Amino acid sequence: MTVGSWLASRTPSPPDELAARIRAALGAALSLPASEASAACVEAMASIVEELLEAPEAGRDRALDLLAADALISYAFEAASDFPSSLSERAAAAMSRIAALGDAGGAPSSHDASGAAW
């Protein structure tokens, strides 16, 4: 199963326009193994939020992006719950990534401060 097929199996399905934006944000990550869904969704969400933060003039026209970012982080935690033994670690890493979005110099990372991977 791939990230794309895992995403397609989620119910209820999001509206078509939102589903398309989520898939676009995931891009090539859709073909990764489903075990990578959590990390892929966190990074896709972060990419959208970084774009929004770089466009302070963005307004209501970017509402779909905000909805997609929200859906992606929800999917990230849902995917992480498929691996109960590492849920805490994955959640902490995701939260570290989210927190880094607010830092002026926060560089993207696939690891949290302790070195744990998503």
Please tag this protein with its features.
disordered C terminus, 5 helices, 118 residues, single chain, mainly alpha
Structural commentary:
Helix content is 56%, strand content 0%. With 118 residues, the protein is an all-alpha fold. It has one domain. The model is unreliable at 105-109 and 111-116 (pLDDT under 50).
What are the SSEs and their pairings?
Elements: H1 3-8, H2 16-26, H3 37-53, H4 63-80, H5 87-100
Helix pairs in contact: 2-4, 3-4, 3-5
Question: What overall form do the CA principal axes indicate?
Answer: globular
E-strand count: 0
Strand content is under 5%
Bin the helical content.
55-70%
Main sheet characteristics: none
What is the string of helix and strand elements? Answer: HHHHH
Structural class: mainly alpha
Average of pLDDT = 87
Distance between the termini: 19 Å
How many separate structural domains? 1
Number of helices: 5
Q: Taking Cα atoms only, what radius of gyration do you get, to the nearest Å?
A: 14 Å
Low-confidence stretches: 105-109, 111-116
